[in-house]
User: Which sequence fits this backbone?
């Protein structure tokens, strides 16, 4: 996996390595893949490039809605010491502004699926928002829902109400973030529908830079969004998605359902070659359908 020689990462996440360059950050998307809060032993070839290029595509297309953190996605524009120290980070890296990150993950749900569906079955609500009776799994919601969660440095995200969000973030900024999140979702949903993709739900992160809200992290990738094939969409059941579904299904077939079911070093953290191949193909399908490009 590509790394920078002699420059230590500020943070190594499950998927990305973040380097502190002083006034900027360098984000490198690895080929690592995680499931059930564990990083698996095998990588998905070119996954980092695929996700990075999809994010770059959307950051460019949404810049008229909200500015973002990108300075450049081309290594030739990076500082000289990065170019000298880099090892094959082209197309999988971006130089970005160092923003003050809001401690909130901004989730927008346009369809009832995943944890939202479980919540609705149990309570008739999604993240505390009451919904009409009689909705079925994967059904399109009457209108998109904004359902924030906390974004702690460690531990699990926790769903919170919009009122709780306004206690963590200045209420005026919270209102603006909610408005932008819904606008971004609607914008991308309408574009993707024409590409035969349904954007079921997605998540965003925002920060403050020069006292202005900017979009950070990643945007509308298979790791941050739930994409469905419009031709295969059928409400009333779970849908196939353009992400690590093959990996999840494989682990589920082995009896893995929770983080506690896996221990570091377990053989289950190794993936069969056909699962790796199918997962890469799914990510690549998403990249091609979204960007219109057939190669990286």
Assistant:
């Amino acid at each position: 996996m590509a790394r920078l020689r002699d420059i230590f990462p500020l943070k190594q996440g499950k998927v990305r390595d973040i380097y502190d360059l002083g006034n900027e950050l360098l984000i490198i998307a690895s080929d690592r893949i995680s499931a059930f809060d564990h990083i698996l032993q095998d990588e998905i070839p070119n996954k980092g490039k695929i996700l990075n290029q999809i994010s770059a595509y959307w950051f460019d297309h949404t810049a008229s809605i909200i500015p973002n953190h990108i300075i450049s996605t081309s290594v030739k524009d990076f500082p000289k010491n990065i170019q000298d120290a880099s090892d094959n980070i082209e197309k999988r890296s971006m130089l970005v502004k160092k923003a003050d990150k809001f401690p909130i993950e901004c989730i927008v749900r346009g369809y009832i699926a995943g944890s939202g569906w479980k919540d609705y079955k149990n309570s008739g609500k999604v993240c505390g928002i009451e919904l009409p009776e009689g909705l079925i799994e994967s059904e399109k919601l009457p209108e998109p829902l904004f359902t924030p969660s906390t974004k702690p440095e460690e531990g699990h995200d926790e769903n919170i109400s919009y009122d709780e969000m306004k206690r963590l973030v200045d209420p005026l900024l919270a209102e603006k973030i909610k408005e932008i999140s819904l606008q971004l979702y609607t914008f991308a949903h309408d574009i993707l529908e024409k590409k035969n993709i349904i954007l079921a739900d997605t998540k965003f992160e925002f920060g403050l830079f020069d006292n202005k809200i900017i979009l950070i992290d990643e945007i509308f990738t298979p790791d941050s969004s739930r994409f469905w094939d419009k031709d295969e969409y059928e409400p009333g059941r779970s849908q196939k998605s353009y992400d690590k579904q093959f990996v999840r299904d494989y682990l589920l077939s082995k009896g893995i359902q929770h983080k506690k079911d896996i221990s570091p070093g377990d053989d289950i953290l190794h993936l069969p070659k056909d699962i790796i191949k199918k997962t890469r193909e799914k990510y690549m399908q998403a990249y091609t359908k979204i960007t219109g490009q057939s190669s990286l």
Remarks:
- The CA atoms of residues 76 and 83 lie 7 Å apart.
- The chain is about 30% helix and 25% strand.
